[in-house]
Amino acid sequence: MPLDTYTTAKASQRAPGAGAEPSAAASTSVHGAGDFGAVTMHPADNVAIARVDLEPGSASVERGPTCLQPIPRGHKVALRAIAIDEPIVKYNTVIGFARAAIAAGQHVHRHNLGAGARGNEGLYDYAFCRDRRPTDFVPAERRAVFQGFVREGGRVGTRNFIGVISTVNCSATVARCIAEHYNHGPGWLPATVDGVVALTHGSGCGLGGNSAGHELLQRTLAGFANHPNFGGLLIVGLGCETLQIERLLERYPLSVAGGRLRTMTIQEEGGSQTTIRRGITEIAHMLGAVADVKRQPVDASHLIIGLQCGGSDAFSSMTANPALGHAVDLLVRHGGTAILSETPEIYGVEHTLTRRAASPEVAQALLDRIEWWREYTRNEPGQLDNNPSPGNHAGGLASILEKSLGAAMKGGTTDLRAVYRYAEPVTERGLVFMDSPGFDPCSATGQIASGANLICFTTGRGSAFGAKPVPSLKLATTSLLYRKQYEDMDLDCGTILDGHESLAECGERIFAELLAVASGQRTKSEAHGYGDHEFVPWQMGAVF
Fold this sequence. Notes:
Radius of gyration: 24 Å
Strand content: 15-25%
Helix content: 25-40%
Distance between the termini: 52 Å
Strand order of the largest sheet: 17-18-16-15-19-20-21
Number of strands: 21
Shape: globular
Oligomer: single chain
Structural class: alpha/beta
């Protein structure tokens, strides 16, 4: 992959918390932690993070307290005495409040840290647009380049798949049989076609035709049908379902041209086996046109990255997430787009985004989505601050505030340019936000429907994930995880924690890898065949 036009950036990282200090302090602390068991992320913090399992009596940080009890790797140790109800501060951001008095050197976790994401109220304000700053864009002639598939209307794909989309669960088996004929048959596909992917789901009927759930599913299917990673498309329905093919195409005209779009229903064809046979024939007819499309050089402004983190741990906010944020800053400077999502996982730190919103309208749009989620969880019923999973807790994350703090770092430091609904087409360049649940497959499905042509996924616990028709790049937060789950991880970001790389150096390495993968380099999840079962549209509303 030619990188002759690639230029590096010297933009500083800012911590997404009150005061938003440069992350140089955090980077220095990590680099200087070799002789001590824990690292501090900011001088104002009253907790440090254990780099290794710490035993009672072991040193925590330089000139800091010794540990009074075992501190598991990734968990927090108190740097000084913390009174009951006093804020617990990490990365210069409040992540909770002491439920009991905590002595210096004690373990700080769920047993003595109160979550309550809204407990942070009054400690910050949304300060719309206060931290906006101009972006130092790279001139068009010097932008980074990747090799992509140029489609109708100038859209650019990173892969060349044929899609088989079912409009309803009733046609899912037929859609899968059609795809499997080509994926498992000997030599059916030309080398320039990446595969035939069946996108099936459990809905499409039993929904009110004017309901929010029906609209959400229509928008998601239309987004995938229009995706530039599909060189050809076959849409398969049953015939009597709520989500009719004709209405879908009327509402969302598709860009696939040249005879590479076909539709059919099982009822019109006369049965399942007949439909499968015709579907196989229809794909055979479009194969030549799909295979003839070749990669060509395009600049990085055509790259749209969906940002995901799953199986997070305490190291996510120290290594992979801020390093990915640096790569996002580079991408934005080169004219590209990054989609931050998972609304429940920015809850409690949404002020860090409103402060760098491009306009008050963008900031308010983000808060409107947060308010929607508050109402949504009240009606379910549920709690918006109950997101951290058992794996997150085991990895050292004690509250949604702490988890959100790391999750927001994936978005880098540039201005937030726009806020979109789930699966809504992204048209703005730069850093944008798409509303979605925190469940990774569902969130990534929405990002791809919105136009993401590559997913970048950080993990501290070892999430296994892929999302056809888009490649997914997996970033491990620690070298231990990278070695342990090497067959699933694409990049090791634990080099930051180990002092072998700075955040900026790791971010530049991620950016170069994004360009290589966009140009056709296969990821680990692609090699394993992930993505056939990870199409998970967001289902909401009543089912009748």
